[in-house]
Every structure is written in C-alpha cells, then in structure tokens.
From TrEMBL:
<dbReference type="GO" id="GO:1990131">
    <property type="term" value="C:Gtr1-Gtr2 GTPase complex"/>
</dbReference>
<dbReference type="GO" id="GO:1904263">
    <property type="term" value="P:positive regulation of TORC1 signaling"/>
</dbReference>
<keyword id="KW-0963">Cytoplasm</keyword>
<dbReference type="GO" id="GO:0009267">
    <property type="term" value="P:cellular response to starvation"/>
</dbReference>
<dbReference type="InterPro" id="IPR006762">
    <property type="entry name" value="Gtr1_RagA"/>
</dbReference>
<keyword id="KW-0342">GTP-binding</keyword>
<dbReference type="GO" id="GO:0012505">
    <property type="term" value="C:endomembrane system"/>
</dbReference>
<comment type="similarity">
    <text>Belongs to the GTR/RAG GTP-binding protein family.</text>
</comment>
<dbReference type="Pfam" id="PF04670">
    <property type="entry name" value="Gtr1_RagA"/>
</dbReference>
<protein>
    <recommendedName>
        <fullName>Ras-related GTP-binding protein</fullName>
    </recommendedName>
</protein>
<keyword id="KW-0472">Membrane</keyword>
<keyword id="KW-0458">Lysosome</keyword>
<keyword id="KW-0378">Hydrolase</keyword>
<dbReference type="InterPro" id="IPR039400">
    <property type="entry name" value="RagC/D"/>
</dbReference>
<dbReference type="GO" id="GO:0003924">
    <property type="term" value="F:GTPase activity"/>
</dbReference>
<dbReference type="GO" id="GO:0005634">
    <property type="term" value="C:nucleus"/>
</dbReference>
<comment type="function">
    <text>Guanine nucleotide-binding protein that plays a crucial role in the cellular response to amino acid availability through regulation of the mTORC1 signaling cascade.</text>
</comment>
Amino acid sequence: MSIQYDETGLAGSFGSFPKSFDYGAEEPEVQSPSSSDKPRILLMGLRRSGKSSIQKVVFHKMSPNETLFLESTNKIYKDDVSSTSFVQFQIWDFPGQVDFFDPTFDSEMIFKGTGALIFVIDAQDDYVEALSRLHLTVSRAFRVNPNINFEVFIHKVDGLSDDHKIETHRDIHQRANDDLADANLEKVHLSFYLTSIYDHSIFEAFSKVVQKLIPQLPTLENLLNIFISVSLTVLILMYTTSQTCMFLPDAEALFYFRLMQDGSGCAYDKESLATIKLNNTTVLYLKEVTKFLALVCILREESFERKGLIDYNFHCFRKAIHEIFEVGGVSSLLSEKRNSSLKFAALNGSIL
Ligand SMILES: Nc1nc2c(ncn2[C@@H]2O[C@H](COP(=O)(O)OP(=O)(O)OP(=O)(O)O)[C@@H](O)[C@H]2O)c(=O)[nH]1
C-alpha cells in the first residue's frame, strides 16, 4: 500500500479529506445530559484576580490582550459549555467579593451541586487577603459538600521569574495548608497550579480540573492504551474543539492544536482526517471521533504501511467512545460482557 502524505506542516495542517473506509451506518451523536446532571465548576477569588479572563480565554477563544478591557463581574455569570466541549459542564463565574454572610447567598444550593471549586489567586499582587478568603471559602464549601475538588490557580505567573514562581508556589501551598491544619481541616485536599492566560498553562490546568470530573476517564485511558498497543503508535492524544480536555497516557507529551475557522464556521467535521509526515520516521495521523473530539496519533512510518488495520482499530475505538458516552459511561466498557463486541486487530493480524 502506498503512503500518501499531506506535507503542509503542523500548524495549518487540518483539513477535510475523503474517508478511506466506509464502515456502514454512522454512529449516533453523543447525547447531552440534562443541565442538572452536568458537573458544575465554580470560579472564585478576589476582585481582578483574573476569573472572567480565564473563562473567556479558555472557552470563548478571547485573545489574552482583549481581557484588559473586561468589566468587573457584578453577579454570578453561568456559562454552559455544552456547545463547545465534548465534556458537558457548567462554569459559574462569581463576582470578586462574595459575602458568605449575606442571607441571599445560598451556600447549600451553590455548593451541593458543585464538582470543582477553582480559587484564583493573583500571584502578582500581595496574596495575604486572598489566602484568608481561600480559607473561608474552602471551609464553608467543605462543610456543605466534602466531595468538591478544591483547585487553587496561582495565576498571572507570566510576570514572575522562574525562581519567584517556585517560591510563590511553595509559600502559598504552605500557608494555605497551615490555615487548614489550624482549623482541624487537614483532610481537605487542595491542588495547586501555576497559571497564566498568556501561555498554555491555563489550558493545561483547566484540562486537569475537568478530567477529574469525567467518570469515564479510566475507561477512556484503557481504550487509548489498547489502541496504542495494537497500532504501535508512539504517542496518542485526544483534543477537543475547545482545547480544554485531553486524555494523555503520556502526560509529559503535551501539545495543542487550534481548529481552523473559516467564514462558514468550523472547518472540522465528520470527514476530517489529516496525515502529515513529521520527519523521516514518523507520521502524524488525525481523525474525527465525535463533533468535539479528535484522535491524534504519531506513528512509526513502517506501522503506517498497514493503514487499513489502523483504520479498522480506529473504527473500533470510535464505536467504543460512542457507546460509553451514550450508556452514561460509568459501567465499564471493558467488562467481560461488553469486551466481546470490541475486537481490535494487532498489526500482526491477530484479533484482540
Ligand atoms: N498578566 C496577566 N494578567 C491577567 C491574567 N489573567 C487576567 N489578567 C488581567 O487581570 C485583570 C482582571 O481580570 P478579570 O478577568 O476581569 O478579573 P476578575 O477576577 O473576573 O475580576 P472581577 O470580575 O472584578 O471579580 C484584567 O486586566 C486581565 O487582563 C494573566 O494570566 N496574566
């Protein structure tokens, strides 16, 4: 079989090509859960810490420079990201100064249905007040719902030297945990991330927050591992149209694609497929999985000579993804019963 390459380069390489295989009826679209089932992520922190900027840059493709003109948020802004993300969730952006003692602030209602609480701290500012606010917020929320994931974004680190970043991270980590220990709340776990809207760190941090809320994640990782082992791929990753979520067996290897937009909207659709020769030994292969998700593999050139098998395995993989997200996902696709319908093929021809 001859190998055909699209040599247009990585950045602008995304386009529509005819499918090389016809596997019969299309799989149905992944169904959306009702809004009450969607995990909720809260964005909290002092005024001007950068909450709205994060939400606009990550989910609405706002350029970082435009955030300079964002107005202060005065009430809770609820953003349903279902239409731009494979993973369905809501983000609630809070105004800077939430008054927990205000009778109109309904902690029960707000924290009960929350999956993750992101607390944003401006690392370029004096963060003493932010730390006491973090403590108040976390202790309140934990009392209502101990299952919330508490995520602390040490934000705007683009203005800090590398040494200063490390020292700020250490200091905030230490003080926040000391405050919890003093209040007998050692069991509360805080995760810390160094973030900035001016580089990929904010996408990476948000991606990690969202991944923790996906019950199907272990199953997805298993599927990717099977795909890697049978297709002899060097690296594999998935990305979403909103760039917010990736499933990476090899977490060291992060890189990002941005979907090309044209006048008529998004260039990405069911037919999307790209094959790019990266160097003399590796080929990048990208294919649509769902409306919001693509599979990207880096293959050794010799593996790509058996492209039919890779396409077949991709078909199995896509079918499985559709199944777990339709069924609600928590039941494992890799249980014995379901495994019988999932038959990947190894490159030596054996069926797994
Ligand atoms: N240098 C730098 N500035 C940032 C970053 N993120 C946000 N900002 C700036 O911080 C300022 C405040 O950002 P907002 O997103 O409005 O902050 P907020 O927390 O939503 O503010 P309130 O609505 O008042 O609570 C803006 O001028 C942003 O441009 C960042 O990562 N680095």
